[in-house]
Each structure stands twice: as C-alpha cells, then as structure tokens.
Amino acid sequence: MPEGHTIHRLARLHQKRFGNAPVVVTSPQGRFAEAAEAVSGRVLRKADAYGKHLFHHYQGGAIVHVHLGLYGSFTERPVPMPEPVGQVRMRMVGQDYGTDLRGPTACEVIHQVEVDDILARLGPDPLQRAPDPAKAWARISKSRRPIGALLMDQKVIAGVGNVYRSELLYRHLIDPHRPGTQIDEAEFDAAWTDLVALMKVGVTRGKIITIRKADDEGAPSYRPGRPRSYVYRRAGEPCRVCGTPIRTEEMEARNLFWCPTCQV
Predict the structure, then answer these.
(1) Arithmetic mean of pLDDT over the chain
(2) Is the pLDDT of residue 200 over 90?
(3) Which among 9, 52, 89, 91 is annotated as catalytic?
(4) Which is the catalytic residue, given 3, 89, 133, 146?
C-alpha cells in the first residue's frame, strides 16, 4: 500500500498538471460514471492530501476523494490519451496531460463536511505544514498495544505504512513489541521529529530513504532501484550494524521486521 509521501507527491503532481483549469473526468469502467459527470468540465481548484487520502477540490464544492488501498494506482500520459486499457475507474484529462486511476479502495465525490469527518478519524499527518503530535502521543502513551501496531494505526498517525514503521523503530532502537505505555515521551519526540524529516525526504525524492550514510553499504536493497533498508524485507539477512539475523512475524495482519539485538 502506498505510504503518505506517495499520496502527497500525487497531490502536488495533480495540482501541477490539472490545477486551476477545467478537467474532463470520465469513468471508462463505469463504476464512477455518475460521480464523474458531476465534476467533469469544472475547474480543479486544488489537489491536496492527508495521510493516505487524496482530495481533488472542484469549483462548486464537489470533492473527489481517492484512497488507493493495496492495489490502486495512477498512470499518466500526455494528451491525446490512448483508449483505456483494463479497469479504469477514473480518467482525468487536462490541457496537456491525462491520468488513469485503477483499482482504488475508494473513489467517490463528497463534500467538505465529509472530508472533515474523514480527517477527524485520523491522527496527525507528519507532512502537514504544522502537524501537532500531541494527539498521537496521547493515544500511544495510554495504549497497551505494541508500538509496532500503533504506528500502523491511521487513527494514531496518518500516512505511516509498513516501511516507515519498521525502519523508524530500528533507527530509534525500539522493540516493536513494546507496549505504547512503555514508550517514554523523549523517545516519542525523537521518533516523531525523525519521521517528519524522513517523510519529507520521501516527498522530495520519491523514495523512502531511511538508512544513514555510514550504514549505506553491504547487501543490496530488497528490490532493484530501491534504496537499502535496515530491516524492511530483510528477514534472515544480517543486521547492517550488529550482524544478527533480521526477524519477521505477522503483527495485526502485516509483516513486521526487526533486529532482536539492536531493538530492545
């Protein structure tokens, strides 16, 4: 599932490609057809993001809400666009570019009151201009759930996914099984500050980069073209710092990775 930095990059890209101009919106697949008609031809005033949610704000107050989920993706081409291929839920065509959306968990037209309801259910987004971590700390400090699960809970922090969860906990040498009640405020503050910086790099570079320069050597990344990681997708491989085999297990239906020696 795309993490928060990817959605913020999409918002910036869509603002650049389609913002402040009329956009033709269709649904070749048909599942979004009626909603597409409600916004097609209107000016896209603003594209923005919060956590893993993307919002297109159209003239007149209608807002297209997209959540990519596990399988959703946008593909972009210059105009003229070719005939749609596959199950295209939404097609947007502007003056110079078009984009196709396939496989999202959510693609719907809503209004500001419904946006407010969505945001009210989410924790702070580290990529907002002035994020307030107090809400996240309040939830974590009172919870007996493991910190590895809390970081993936969008009601705690919006936008964090499996890669940032695993890598952040390694960078701060925190055992992902430790209950939230056993995380002290200084640890949380340091991790939050680091998370904000890491996610901003993700927006700028388009990649999740978590490894420090001193450790950026040795075994290659888990996938060609991806930066090296400390623990993510490295189960059984030696820790880049201590050499202990990285462990993995399922935590609340998601794969967790950690070093049992460094993270205590």
Answers:
(1) 97
(2) yes
(3) 52
(4) 3
Q: Please give the Cα distance from 142 to 157 (Å, whole number).
A: 15
Long-range own/partner contacts, residues 118-122 (CB < 8 A, 24 or more apart):
118/50, 118/53, 118/65, 119/50, 121/154, 121/155, 122/50, 122/51, 122/53, 122/154, 122/155, 122/158
pLDDT in tens, 74-119: 999 999 999 999 999 999 999 999 999 999 999 999 999 999 999 9
Catalytic residue flag (residue 234) = no
**pTM listed for this prediction:** 0.96
Check residue 166 and give its pLDDT. 98
Task: Give catalytic status of residue 84 as yes or no.
Answer: no
User: Considering all CA atoms of the chain, what is the largest pairwise distance in Å, rounded to the nearest integer?
Assistant: 58
Q: CA angle, 208 as apex, 206 and 212 as ends, to 5°? A: 125
Percent of the chain with pLDDT over 90: 97
**52 tagged catalytic:** yes
